[in-house]
Recover the amino acids of this structure.
């Protein structure tokens, strides 16, 4: 198939539509993570539908001192990746097409959720992000739009905006794509030197440490619940490496499952160690939050949660996250 390159909304609207239109929004510099989104969109749209990839570096979501000017622009390569992944069209508008007359005076406000974590570190970022997403949804007129779960807070805010403002568009989250060493794919990874990349691996290792601690706690609790008597329960715990003095079987069986505090501590230990690397990791935040509003969860929390981390390595700022489930005998999602 040949992927059309379009620069105006008029060109896009002139296309004949038969089935569903699925849109993948990007800022360009496409990589395998974006390609995964496009392939997922192709599957949702089906053979009779249409997949549109937007490529637009949005100036509204870059704050003072951020990397707008050095953000990679690789449209020719992006077009090839989009085509190989199954896109029907790439919509790459100029700034004047998206913001005719200059910066918009009326914008979407992210609200309290947009002031936490990423919003606290990057004031105004989510207002700019939601404003351009709203405009691109109107310009592309999709039935469904797909976003990566790596940007978990962004995804949550887009879902909230679409629901609160009655956009009538289905929002689909696609799991994070990682490189073989565990680093989450990001357009900013190309800025890392080899030494900086080794340090950056601490982000995913911290998340995996938290996930593994949670899984171990869940396994211990499940084993404890399977054994009927107190003495037998204690023996079972000893058999899997927990001494009687370290963990009373009844306490384990009745404790809040998963232990958010222990998950945070396991992840924090990895980040603390990475602060002593050369070059060092400079953590921004580590949070275990409720994805409905991105507030920190308590030890009695049950349900879906997100373990999120952000840090800077040299001049490059990276984010990552993992979903976890608390309150069941299942391990991490």
């Amino acid at each position: 198939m040949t992927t059309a390159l379009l620069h105006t909304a008029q060109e896009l609207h002139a296309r004949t539509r038969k089935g569903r239109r699925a849109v993948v929004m990007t800022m360009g510099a496409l990589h395998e993570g974006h390609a995964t989104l496009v392939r997922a969109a192709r599957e949702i749209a089906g053979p009779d539908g249409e997949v549109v990839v937007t490529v637009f570096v949005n100036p509204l979501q870059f704050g003072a001192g951020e990397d707008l000017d050095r953000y990679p622009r690789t449209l020719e390569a992006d077009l090839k990746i989009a085509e190989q992944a199954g896109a029907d069209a790439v919509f790459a508008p100029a700034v004047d097409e998206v913001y005719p007359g200059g910066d918009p005076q009326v914008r979407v406000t992210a609200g309290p959720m947009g002031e936490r974590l990423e919003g606290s570190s990057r004031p105004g970022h989510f207002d700019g992000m939601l404003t351009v997403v709203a405009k691109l949804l109107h310009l592309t007129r999709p039935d469904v739009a797909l976003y990566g779960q790596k940007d978990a807070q962004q995804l949550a805010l887009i879902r909230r905006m679409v629901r609160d403002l009655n956009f009538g568009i289905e929002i689909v989250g696609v799991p994070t794509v990682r490189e073989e060493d565990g680093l989450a794919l990001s357009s900013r990874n190309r800025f890392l030197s080899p030494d900086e990349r080794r340090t950056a691996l601490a982000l995913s290792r911290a998340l995996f440490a938290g996930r593994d601690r949670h899984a171990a706690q869940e396994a211990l609790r499940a084993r404890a619940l399977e054994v009927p008597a107190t003495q037998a329960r204690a023996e079972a715990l000893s058999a899997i490496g927990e001494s009687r003095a370290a963990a009373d079987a009844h306490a384990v069986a009745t404790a809040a499952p998963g232990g958010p505090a222990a998950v945070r501590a396991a992840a924090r230990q990895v980040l603390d160690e990475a602060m002593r690397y050369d070059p060092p990791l400079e953590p921004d935040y580590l949070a275990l939050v409720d994805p409905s509003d991105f507030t920190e969860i308590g030890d009695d929390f049950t349900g879906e949660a997100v373990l999120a981390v952000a840090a800077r390595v040299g001049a490059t700022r990276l984010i990552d996250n993992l979903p976890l489930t608390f309150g069941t005998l299942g391990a991490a999602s």
